[in-house]
Amino acid sequence: MYRWDFTPVLANADLLAAGLVNTLKITGTSLACGLVLGLALALLRLSKHRWASWPAGFVIEVFRTTPPLVQLFWFFFALPLIVGIEMTPFMAAVVTFSIQSAAFFAEVFRAGIVSIERGQWDGARAIGMTHAQALRRIVLPQAVKRMIPAFMERTIELMKTTTLVATIAYADLLYAANEISQKTFRPLETFTVVALIYFVVITAFSLVARRLERRMAISGESTVH
Amino acid sequence: MHRWDFASVLANTDALLVGAIGTLHIFAICLVLGLSLGLVVGLGRYARSRWLYWPATAFVEFFRNTPVLVQILWFYFALPILLPFSVSPLEAASLGISLNSAAFSAEIYRGGIQSIERGQWDGARAIGMNWAQAMRRIILPQALKRMMPALTNRAIEIFKMSTLASAVAYVELLQQGKLIASLNFNPIEAYTAVAVIFFVFLWPLVQFTYVLERRLAGDE
Amino acid sequence: MTILKVSGLAKRFAGQEVLRGIDLDVTKGERIAVLGASGSGKSTLLRCLNFMEMPDAGTVTLDGRTIGRRESELTLVRQRIGMVFQQFNLFPHMTALGNVMEGLRTVRRMPRDQAQARAGKELARVGLADKAANYPAHLSGGQKQRVAIARALAMDPELLLFDEPTSALDPELVGEVLGVIRSLAEEGRTMLLVTHELGFAYHVATRVIFLADGTIHEQGTPDEVLKHPKKERTQSFLARHKEFSL
Ligand SMILES: Nc1ncnc2c1ncn2[C@@H]1O[C@H](COP(=O)(O)OP(=O)(O)O)[C@@H](O)[C@H]1O
Ligand SMILES: [Mg+2]
Question: Which of A184, B211, C18, C117 sits at a 20 to 30 Å CA gap from B28?
Fold first, then answer.
């Protein structure tokens, strides 16, 4: 019978903490960039002009249909050689995950915007608003409310996807696990602890998300996915 | 400006072919295991008995709320400590991806089954069917049709997840891409080729889900 | 001869007492019309008879045997008590013939050709021989309900339960379904029929019961209950349904 011993892992709590901070840093940065970029992609995608909607659609499709790990390797190993800039693992990760989540967010934004009834556009236009004003003041505020559950779900996916940065040696939580397990020869305890940390963080986030969703359901908002 | 040189990739077509077979191999394993185990767990999530409901729910919550790469590494590095034998890269990756997909597809199955109106159960029971007969003959066939787009999406996710097996050095497309890049110093072409191959594999599947979704929306 | 005996039947939903102590004997060949306001528990009563709802108290005795609660026993009971629903509940992924065959094949394990012949005969009996290959989506409401009746008949039930079989139909389709039920009555089938078609009840039923407050408030021959009701609740219920013609 194997004797479990967590003390070597707990002795490296500082490494785990630093790893978790880095995981959250990548998640947060990519989320912020992904949202902005996603909205831009959605608006381009909805544009009447083919030269805008078609490339946006292409980017969305490519990033939704290729594996995130392939994207990450491409941005880390290939892109720097093409453009001639040195890429740190952090930069490559943020670029990859921003565009990748933007591709998913774009579809959420688009569905949300499309779900707003024509009457709202008409009403805004009738009081003299431009297209941009109607979008910003009338349509988006209503649409964003409906999109919150889908955003939450995507954010959880994003956090899980950030573990891929461990494969390009960025010191996130999973990378810390690898390091500690090699140092202490305690892979069982280390990976179990790290799995539990992810579980706790993600579960906490999804509980908050669910509560938010329920509150919105009570206030009678429909949602898009 | 970079001078593209795909000749160095084409010279390694056989290596990519080996990788593609590895990818399809693990994809097939995880698709079958993940979607069938998912049905079992989904039925557990749907069950009234708490002895079925709670274990199924714990399973779903755990595997949905941990990253699949962590699961794969756990099965590869941690599980062998508890077992009298070693775990191969293929086994570790298949376990991680299958269990993760089971958790996600379980929720698809449960949602699909729940979406069938109560009247269908009534109709089935009124002619003397028991629970299993009603489920197999009446409820599941209708639910599966509604779940097709979501299940196809899951299949696409499984295909994409198969690249994570490269983290434990299982030989699949991305792993072969790495190999080609390091042997020929051509990461740009090697990784671009891998990305294109995945896109070519998956793009038709993605379009197929759109067709399924549209057809379903038209039916109902 | 009594084929179904109900005594002390009670059913509660979330604290609300829907049925409280129903006693009812059904004799072979009897046709009982069940009346009552919406929400008075008519559907619940029918669903308790074949245990689609579990009664909280009371017993149901079929052919002298009190029905237990084991699923294997209930599935047998449900084969002997046919049920037709307001919303038809046809199986949309099967043809009309497939719907009628389903119980024979899956529950009775009858060989395919035998089940097919039997189902074809039942469809012909409800006048739908030419619609055997149609899916429910390509049938009218009246045709759907006739398929549902054929589906119940295929199991050779000793007792038929109809729960407002024409309430979901457009007025011009009601007649064809009532026609089928009338022909079953003429064959001497035993049935319980929840309906708001009071004229039909008057002509076809051998007994009428009026449900109120979770009990049988009044019962008797169609003449007694529908034309000369004694209780005030029954009178005011009938007054609200005055548009019917006796
Ligand atoms: N499955 C159920 N759960 C909770 N309440 C129910 C259920 N079925 C029926 N009821 C309630 O029982 C009462 C009687 O319903 P029902 O038997 O359908 O009446 P009727 O068929 O006479 O209109 C109603 O108040 C209804 O809301
Ligand atoms: Mg009713």
Answer: B211
For residue A164, tell me if it sits in a domain: yes
Which B-chain residues 114-133 have CB contacts (< 8 A) with chain C? 119-120, 122-131, 133
Q: Contact, C122 vs C153, CB < 8 A?
A: yes
- Complete DSSP assignment for A187-219: HHHHHHHHHHHHHHHHHHHHHHHHHHHHHHHHT
Pocket test for ligand 1, best of C19, C44, C86 (most atoms within 8 A of CB): C44
CA distance B31 to B95: 11
Binary contact (C106, B120; C-beta < 8 A) = no
The answer to the question of residue A1 being in a domain is no
pLDDT of residue A222 exceeding 90: no
CA B139 to chain centre: 24
By most ligand atoms within 8 Å of CB, the mutation choice from C43, C163, C192 for ligand 1 is C43
Sequence spans of domains, chain B: 22-175
pLDDT digits (tens, 9 = 90+) for A12-65: 999 999 999 999 999 999 999 999 999 999 999 999 899 999 999 999 999 999
The pLDDT assigned to A86 comes to 87
Ligand 1 atom 21 nearest Cα: C43
In a domain, A93, yes or no: yes
Chain B positions in Cβ-Cβ contact with residue C83 (cut-off 8 Å): 122, 126
User: What are the beta bridge partners of residue C83?
Assistant: C161
The answer to whether the CB of C197 falls within 8 A of the CB of C204 is: no
CATH number (domain holding residue A196):
1.10.3720.10
Could you report the average pLDDT of every consecutive run of 10 residues in chain C (246 residues)? 93 93 95 95 95 93 88 91 95 95 95 96 96 96 97 95 95 94 95 94 95 94 94 91 60
- Using a CB-CB distance cutoff of 8 angstroms, which residues of chain C are in contact with residue B147? none
CA of C91 from ligand 1 middle (Å) equals 24
Residue A223 belongs to a domain: no
Q: Give me the CATH code for the B22-175 domain, please.
A: 1.10.3720.10
How confident is residue B216, by pLDDT bands cut at 50, 70 and 90? confident
Verify whether the Cβ–Cβ distance B129 to C71 is below 8 Å: no
Q: Which domain holds residue A116?
A: 7-218
